[in-house]
Amino acid sequence: MKSVKEVSIESKILKRLEKNPNCLKLVNYLFADEELQEMQEYANNVSIKRLGFNDHGPVHMRQVVGNAIKMLNILQESGIKTSLEAEEIGTFEDSMCAVILAGLMHDLGMMIGRQGHEDMSAILAQPLIERALMHVFPDNLHKRVIIKALATEAIVGHMTSRKIHSIEAGILLIADGCDMTKGRARIPLSINKTPKVGDIHKYSANAINRIGIHHGEKKPIKIEITMSSDVGFFQIEEVLLTKINASPAKEYVELYAGVEGQEPKCYL
After folding, report:
1. Cα 254–148–63 angle (5° rounding)?
2. Starting at the edge strand that comes first in sequence, how are the strands of the sheet with 253-259 ordered?
3. In sequence order, which residues have a C-beta less than 8 Å from that of residue 96 and are 6 or more positions away?
4. 210 - beta bridge partners?
5. What is the mean pLDDT of residues 25-51?
6. H-helix or E-strand containing 153?
7. What residues pair up with 225 in beta bridges, in sequence order?
């Protein structure tokens, strides 16, 4: 059974896609896919209970999709074309479909382990991607091919271990980095009490209170982060900023972060 948090995020995603019928058809299909749900939940079990990492399950993957949809919509409203649009090979909605697929499947490889999980995610996702695209575009091979390829690029590129080249994959990369608030670290912090290497990621994430994604002032997308203590800067500088710097969408992003009550620092 889905958690209240999952259902809440799904509701927000559906609302943001009201003007995109193919995307709505896709997410409704994926949200009802029992195999995908089981894979997401098992990935989270391995991540939290076996490996001691932050949430990499159904809530995280839905949150990443929500972040990515918001960013893509801002780009469209700002007159920025996606790679598929600029190359005149696909539509904005095709780009959105690819990002949705990647967001909901990018961490499936955590079912196997942390090392190289992005490549394992791509392998595990292929039959699910093909099944979902056949449901939405049964008579359009062209769309199925380009969307699958783009979604796969975004999945294998979400850890910055592989260079990516599309705006769509770049947005997914940043959207993943933006899911780092304290809720993501709550369960692993309560379960794993013995200090070990890598705990700084959980403690730094636990210091992040809010992340806002809005229209920017000098660039299309503005990311604003508020934290409870300085330890949160680790998460921003070692995780999010690394992902933004590796993203083909970097030129469209402003980044501000600061401790509650203090002047925020401008990174980009």
Report:
1. 45
2. 208-215, 221-227, 253-259, 265-266
3. 17, 20, 23, 69, 72
4. 226
5. 97
6. helix 141-156
7. 211, 257
Cα(2)–Cα(105) distance, integer angstroms: 17
- The span from the CA of 7 to the CA of 83, in Å, is 31
Domains plus CATH for the chain? 4-177 (1.10.3210), 183-266 (3.30.300)
Going by pLDDT thresholds of 50, 70 and 90, the confidence category of residue 189 is very low
Q: What is the spatial distance between Cα 126 and Cα 130, in angstroms, rounded to a whole number?
A: 6
Q: Which residues of 214-226 are buried (b: 16+ CB within 10 A; e: fewer)?
A: eebeebbbbbbbb
Q: Which amino acid is at 110?
A: M
Cβ atoms of 257 and 236 within 8 Å: the answer is yes
Q: Position 85: which residue type?
A: E
Predicted TM-score (pTM) of the model is 0.92
How many Cα atoms sit within 13 Å of 212 on the Cβ side? 10
Residue type for position 51 = L
The SS3 assignment for 59 reads helix
Specify the DSSP class assigned to residue 266. E
84-116 pLDDT tens trace: 999 999 999 999 999 999 999 999 999 999 999
Name the residue among 59, 158, 173 with its Cα closest to residue 116.
158
